[in-house]
Design goal:
The protein is α/β, with parallel strands linked by helices. The chain folds into two domains: 4-154 and 305-359 and 389-400, Rossmann fold, CATH 3.40.50.450; 156-303, Rossmann fold. 34% of the residues lie in helices and 19% in strands. The strands form four sheets. Strands 3-2-1-4-5-12-13 form a seven-stranded mixed beta sheet, sandwiched between helices. A hairpin with a 5-residue loop joins β9 and β10 (269-271). α1 runs parallel beside α12. The chain is elongated and about 70 Å long. Residues 261-266 have low confidence and may be disordered.
Length: 419
């Protein structure tokens, strides 16, 4: 393939390490000036491609690109926007081709989760369907850890570390006040269908009686009576009860306990509020004083306490994506392959996008205890290496020193387009 420009974009919910992937990818592309010209970033994800709102990353200094490793969130802006099928929305794809052709883009890198994998697969099909040569590579990212064919997803390890640390610290706090004050603490974490983040909270407990005492997974149907009985037993035995609950907790009717009745841009039910609902339920039944917290954006933005393993894997998939593209690998995803648990060893592999798109990897039942309220030793063995190590950002005046890129727009060559 002759020298072509590349397009890179971030999609879906951002993470503490997605910018580390972006920086590594841009650095890897710059290392091949004979094969890759400029790397254009889509402002706000795929929307930047459709609206021809491209950012010229070649105008960013080597130092600022390197500083992306330590900066959370999405440096170029992300989006929740899923391309429809080629058959029903051909005009969208024709627009993409127009933009790619106008800016001589031959490489397409999409950094995101399951819906992003689907978008990347559709873009990869453009060559055959519309006669335009382009190599599309998906770069994995999701705090939910629910992509298949990869041992873990960059972004998850840092969220896992954050919620485990937060649960341990909150557990110490509640335990110290339980005699005369709060007896129940509930932490709501992300996870629509997969309970990986909830499971990570369980790492905080290494000895009997330590927080968290109960984990509520989306994979396990919520049994109110069983739950309330366990809470009472826990308070009577330990003096307090700390609970981690997934936003995607479902009842016996299959509905989310916290479904808001609205949908996001991907067509998913919007969730929120299961933490206070669980806390209120305990209060109504047992009369215990409670506190609840929602980790929300804090869990995915916490670059200050990122997992070293996670950062290293985020960097590795960014570099690997470029190598896969230069090798002509189309419709693939750079993946993480686990070689051993202890000592933890891993390498970068490759997965076919047709086997990744629109497939969710949930918690295996053998990772959840028989009673449905905890994690097994097998789960601990899987999770522990993913939160290992620290990769602190530089600090200035007592705060993390993060970079803000210039994000200079490329001059548009086409007529305006409205999505």
């Amino acid at each position: 393939m002759p020298k072509r420009n590349a397009f890179y974009a971030q999609s879906g919910g951002v993470t503490a390490v997605i910018n580390a992937t972006a920086g590594a990818l841009i650095e890897a592309a710059r290392a091949h000036p004979d094969r890759i010209g400029k790397v254009y970033a889509g402002r706000n994800g795929i929307i930047g491609a459709l609206t021809e709102d491209l950012i010229d990353t070649s105008l960013e200094s080597t130092n600022d690109i390197a500083r992306l490793r330590h900066t959370p969130a999405g440096a170029f802006g992300s989006c929740r926007y899923k391309l429809k099928s080629l058959e029903t929305h051909r005009a969208q794809y024709e627009r993409l081709i127009e933009v790619f052709r106008a800016h001589d883009i031959g490489y397409f890198f999409y950094n995101g989760g399951g819906d992003s994998a689907d978008t990347c697969l559709k873009v990869s099909q453009l060559s055959a369907a519309m006669g335009y040569p382009i190599v599309a590579v998906h770069v994995p990212k999701t705090v939910d850890n629910d992509l298949p064919l990869t041992d873990c997803c960059p972004g998850f390890g840092s969220v896992a570390k954050y919620v485990a640390v937060s649960m341990r610290e909150a557990g110490f706090d509640v335990a110290s006040m339980a005699k005369t004050s709060t007896k129940v603490f509930v932490l709501e974490v992300m996870g629509r269908h997969a309970g990986w983040i909830t499971a990570a909270c369980g790492l905080a407990s290494e000895q009997a009686g330590e927080a968290p005492h109960l984990l509520l997974f989306p994979e396990i149907v919520f049994d109110q009576e069983s739950f309330l009985a366990r809470v009472k037993e826990c308070v009577e035995r330990h003096g307090y009860c700390a609970i981690a609950v997934s936003e995607g907790l479902r009842g016996a009717d299959g509905k989310f306990l916290a479904e808001a009745g609205t949908m996001d841009a991907f067509g998913h039910a919007q969730l929120g509020g299961v933490g206070p609902r669980i806390a209120q339920l305990v209060s109504e039944k047992h009369g215990y004083k409670y506190h609840w917290a929602v980790a929300d954006y804090l869990q995915r933005a916490a670059r200050h306490i990122a997992s070293k393993t996670d950062v290293e894997q985020a960097v590795a998939v960014g570099r690997a994506a470029v190598e896969l593209a230069l090798a002509g690998k189309n419709a693939v995803m750079a993946s993480i392959v686990r070689l051993a648990d202890s000592p933890y060893r891993w390498e970068v592999g490759v997965a076919e996008l047709k086997d990744v798109a629109n497939v969710e990897k949930k918690m295996p039942r053998e990772f959840i205890t028989a009673d449905g309220f905890g994690i097994t030793e097998a789960c601990r063995a899987y999770l522990a290496p993913l939160i290992a190590g620290e990769d602190y950002p530089p600090y200035r005046n007592g705060l993390p020193d993060y970079v803000r890129l210039k994000n200079v727009a490329v001059v548009k060559k086409l007529a305006a387009y409205t999505i």
